[in-house]
């Protein structure tokens, strides 16, 4: 099959004064009405909204089916079909790998599309998003990888669909509304980010991980082309699987390292970043480099563990200590750079880490994200296992004996109070039980939001969304379902958005070896009692890495790049002013009750600084984001 690579255009200086984002991207539309008179203007506006320093390749059709496709990767055109694949895809067979090397990823995907139709989405692996515009039957087919490492937004009308890897490019099309969705604002406060598939903008959608869509004749169909199968038993020995993990990890890191780029690693000092850093060191011809962030705040600084790992593997460690002044200076820029409000405060240290690497000429950073969600390393998994013990007791015994007996004891007795709390939480089914300490469970929505706002949204939507993802895997255990839930809400919608975007803003690329498809498949083969043995988190992984990682790394408590905002805000006046001024401005909007915003400040000062500091943070970020987007 032969085809064309079309219209390679170099970016010229645009009217967009924001910092360019170094990230793979595409955008475009398909219009079957034949009436798009503003095609040239829309193409220009969408390119300016992307504000990419990368070369843009585009193709357009003058047939009755008006379409436009632009990409930072190749746009390949053959047989009246246009294809682009962005990211770092790879192929599961030697034949497909050879074809990609001889021609391109886009040409390989087109070949699969013509032979297998929509089944081609199952064959591509790695970090990717793709678009196929088929002019033969006037359809748009597009999808994202198994963890949606690259997002895909779209808006559909009767006769056309607009798409892009950023919400900003979609919004730049003149037929797309820029109005905010009240439900999206509520979801942001609930999740501290805006999860798929419902972005902050009205009429817009965002693909869930492992999904593709097909748009034809004004109708859209969505397909979950990939769903993990979790094994409950394992025929291989524990030792053999440990060896397989070590080999797979090394292969995944190797696959993430391009030959022609300067590569370093994020290093927090935890299990995953230490593993990736160690593998990078073993695979590097010269001394490997790693970048770490520290905080001058008790209980938040992990630099000592990063130093242990660096010394253990002979890695050159680059350290940067984030200050409250850094936060005040950088936060408005960082908040404004996001398409949607994003409240994960550890975006700030990730940015400074990536910025330091970019200053030193690093072109690609390896992130350690994903190991906890693949191999059961989060405390909440062990905690929920404790509650599941109660649910294993026959329901009749619980309802007719245990719970009535508890009610007979005075509730003020400390032990009785604790047991009641345990029983009450155990009686909440998963995944809702994991949201016990969510702000919107600790405080009723009617306490936080204005009545008119609450009447316009569904307060049950977030839990319904969680349940739909939690229940998707077939014949899975509660632990496997919790892991899968985190693949969407902790990784796809949160951690990957955080790290990828901060790297793009700093001007450095990023890859996630822990989340390689081969690692996903291996994780699905590991039984629950290997991943979480009793209350021992990541048991299998730690056993596999013992005697290779430093012992201090194996035994340390998980922490990461958490920002001590709540602590700093108690003593740092400029940070206090930024937060309180943002809350003051938020009072003038129609979303929140003024009395709650006032009470929140008191709760932070007199109550739990870290807990309510986080709520102040996400509301401050919301106000700064609304301001940056000109939302009154």
What do these coordinates show?
- This protein is α+β, with helices and mostly antiparallel strands and 632 residues long.
- The protein is 46% helix and 16% strand.
- It contains 27 helices and 19 strands.
- The strands form three sheets. The protein has a seven-stranded antiparallel β-sheet with strand order 1-6-7-8-9-13-14. A seven-stranded antiparallel β-sheet has the order 2-4-5-3-11-10-12. Strands 17-16-15-18-19 form a five-stranded parallel β-sheet, sandwiched between helices.
- A hairpin with a 2-residue loop joins β6 and β7 (81-90).
- It starts with a strand and ends with a helix.
Q: What is shown here, in short?
A:
The chain is built from 27 helices and 19 strands. The chain is an alpha+beta fold and 632 residues long.
Mean pLDDT over the full residue set: 91
Shape: globular
* Beta-strand content estimate: 15-25%
Helix content: 40-55%
Strand order, main sheet: write it out.
1-6-7-8-9-13-14
Strand elements, count: 19
* Helix count, DSSP H or I runs of 4 or more residues: 27
Write the topology of this structure.
Elements: E1 4-5, E2 8-9, E3 26-31, H1 39-50, E4 56-61, E5 66-71, E6 75-78, E7 81-90, H2 94-102, H3 105-116, E8 125-134, E9 139-144, E10 153-156, E11 160-164, H4 167-171, H5 182-191, E12 205-206, E13 211-216, E14 219-224, H6 238-256, E15 263-266, H7 271-283, E16 289-295, H8 303-313, E17 316-322, H9 324-337, H10 347-359, E18 364-366, H11 371-375, H12 379-391, H13 395-408, H14 414-426, H15 439-442, H16 445-448, H17 451-456, H18 461-470, H19 478-506, E19 509-511, H20 517-525, H21 528-531, H22 539-545, H23 551-555, H24 565-569, H25 573-586, H26 594-606, H27 609-628
Parallel strand pairs: 15-16, 15-18, 16-17, 18-19
Antiparallel strand pairs: 1-6, 2-4, 3-5, 3-11, 4-5, 6-7, 7-8, 8-9, 9-13, 10-11, 10-12, 13-14
Helix pairs in contact: 2-3, 6-7, 6-22, 7-8, 9-27, 10-19, 12-14, 25-27, 26-27
